[in-house]
């Protein structure tokens, strides 16, 4: 499991259940020990002092359910070395920013799962950390809360050199939010890069709108497979070495071509290509 997270970037960590995302984050935080290898920050192995500068949000709730929200945030801030005044000020600032200030005196157990998730993020932010490590931070949130949390993460990166690393199964959100993405399978990073770089790893596909072609028109085109048809529009997958100009020429020979463009895969499609297809190949 080798990867790096750059200063001032949002890094998405994606993979199937059991791929090793949570285990990796727990090793970063020192919750469990690594069998071998080293986690470094700015070139030096991470120690307790560095971990105190990390804002960590575990996948499971790490809150005291019968403790009021404001008191809880103040308590966590004090644990990280803030004075009582600084802790209370920071607690109220983050409650206001995350839209939970009206619940300041409510016990956590009385909140909805979405608001509990906001409190969980506030505990990771209340001490103004230098690094954020968030395990499934968007789980269970409604669209408004997702947007609030997304904007907070963007602000953290924009205002300084704070790296943000988070895992998620919401691949459309990862694609929209992250500067770079690491795809994990069986405890290894099998692909890593910007979304555009990763999309280049996907299958070679083209979309063509050609009303004049018949149903089996690609049969004589070597290495060309029909993925799906949408009326007169065809999505075709090209094997390595197949020439897209063959496709264009064959369609143009029988009528007009209204569209001819290369189709880039979404992160969801790429995930299935990199992870699911490889796993099926391994089984086969």
TrEMBL record:
The answer on whether this UniProt entry bears the keyword Glycoprotein reads: no
List the SMART domains hit by this protein, alphabetically: AAA (SM00382)
Q: Which GO terms describe its molecular function?
A: ATP binding
The record's PROSITE patterns line, in alphabetical order, gives: ABC_TRANSPORTER_1, ABC_TRANSPORTER_2
Disulfide bond as a keyword of this entry, yes or no, is no
Q: Which one Pfam family would you cite for this protein?
A: ABC_tran
Domain ABC transporter: residue ranges: 1-211
SUPFAM superfamilies, per the entry: P-loop containing nucleoside triphosphate hydrolases
Q: Which UniProt keywords apply?
A: ATP-binding, Nucleotide-binding, Transport
Q: Which InterPro entries match?
A: AAA+_ATPase (IPR003593), ABC_transporter-like_ATP-bd (IPR003439), ABC_transporter-like_CS (IPR017871), DrrA1/2-like_C (IPR025302), P-loop_NTPase (IPR027417)
Could you list the residue ranges that cross the membrane?
A: none
Give the UniProt family note: Belongs to the ABC transporter superfamily.
| Protein known as | ABC transporter ATP-binding protein
């Amino acid at each position: 499991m080798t990867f790096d997270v750059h200063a001032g970037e949002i890094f998405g960590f994606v993979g199937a259940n059991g791929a090793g995302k949570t285990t990796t984050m727990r090793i970063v935080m020192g919750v469990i020990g690594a069998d071998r290898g080293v986690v470094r920050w700015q070139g030096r192995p991470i120690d307790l002092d560095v971990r105190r500068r990390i804002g960590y949000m575990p996948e499971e709730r790490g809150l005291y359910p019968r403790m009021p929200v404001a008191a809880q945030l103040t308590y966590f801030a004090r644990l990280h070395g803030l004075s009582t005044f600084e802790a209370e000020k920071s607690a109220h600032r983050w409650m206001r920013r995350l839209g939970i200030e009206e619940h300041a005196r409510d016990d956590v157990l009385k909140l909805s799962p979405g608001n509990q998730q906001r409190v969980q993020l506030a505990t990771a932010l209340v001490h103004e950390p230098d690094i954020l490590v968030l395990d499934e931070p968007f789980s269970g949130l409604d669209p408004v809360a997702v947007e609030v949390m997304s904007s907070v993460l963007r602000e953290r990166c924009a205002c300084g050199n704070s790296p943000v690393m988070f895992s998620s199964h919401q691949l459309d959100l990862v694609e929209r939010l992250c500067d770079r993405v690491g795809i994990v399978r069986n405890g290894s990073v099998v692909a890593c890069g910007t979304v555009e770089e990763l999309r280049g790893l996907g299958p070679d596909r083209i979309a063509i709108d050609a009303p004049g072609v018949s149903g089996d028109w690609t049969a004589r085109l070597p290495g060309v497979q029909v993925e799906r048809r949408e009326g007169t529009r065809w999505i075709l997958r090209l094997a390595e070495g197949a020439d897209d100009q063959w496709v264009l020429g064959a369609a143009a020979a029988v009528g007009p071509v209204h569209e001819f463009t290369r189709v880039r895969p979404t992160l969801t499609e790429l995930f299935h290509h990199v992870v699911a297809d490889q796993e099926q190949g391994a089984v086969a």
